[in-house]
Amino acid sequence: MRRLIITAISGWLCVAHMGAAQVADLRSTTSFRVCADPANAPMSHKDGSGFENRLAAQFGEWLDLPVTYSWFPSGMGFITKTLRAGTCDVVMGYAQGDELVQNTNHYYTSVFGIVTRKDSALADVDHLGDPVLKDHPIGVIAGSPPATIMARAGLAKDMRGGDLFVDRRVKDPVGRMIDSVRDGSLDAAVLWGPLAGPRIKDDPDLQFTPLLREKSGPKMFYRITMGVRPGEQEWKRQLNSLIRRHQDEINQTLREAGVPLVDDYGKEMLP
């Protein structure tokens, strides 16, 4: 379950261990080389429009290095074909706690939430145990943390699952769910904030409400880091220093993108 949660948030990545002796000479000193999915909007996209693309550009500026990408669809083989192969040096947007990659310090914390129409009977819902949710069709990504809570709350018959592992160059389960809330096919969708928030931030009809009142596990908030190869301690320390010195600028980029930010304990929304 722990691996499934981390995988769902991090973009469904599959990682492989690599010893320190194997990674000593892999990191580039002439460019900031990023491993990324070319179609993981709104996080990353080959056209550079994702908020992780904008963050990567900022890190490149702070390092005084040009940004280059190793593009590969997230999922099975992602890390093997990119980070492990030495074609790139950092994975943006990686959930804290995966023991098979080395995590930097987290640079933001976000939360799952519920997308509803502003004029909906569900507009005031802020926790999945609310009885008003029953008998309403609700979208959720199968295998994601809130799906467990929804099943426990007796909402299994109301859940309309989206696929967890997809090639997002051809499928967009999150976008499809949001469109279904917009057109009334679904009454709500329970989604990871960084995937949903940027898509609806300027939508006059939809809203995202963070799920900050859940009392049972799994948790609804997660700290997001960058993933680097095991053994690359100096590289991790360099990135950690940049995160610490530029946190306000990072937060501004994320807020402008529409990413819902919470404090490190998932207790309140950050301004």
UniProtKB/TrEMBL annotation:
SUPFAM superfamilies: Periplasmic binding protein-like II
Phosphoprotein is among the record's keywords: no
Domain Solute-binding protein family 3/N-terminal: residue ranges: 31-257
InterPro entries named in the record: Quinoprotein_dehydrogenase (IPR022448), Solute-binding_3/MltF_N (IPR001638)
Keywords: Signal
Signal peptide extent: 1-23
PANTHER family according to UniProt: ARGININE-BINDING EXTRACELLULAR PROTEIN ARTP (PTHR35936:SF17), MEMBRANE-BOUND LYTIC MUREIN TRANSGLYCOSYLASE F (PTHR35936)
Protein name: Amino acid ABC transporter substrate-binding protein, PAAT family
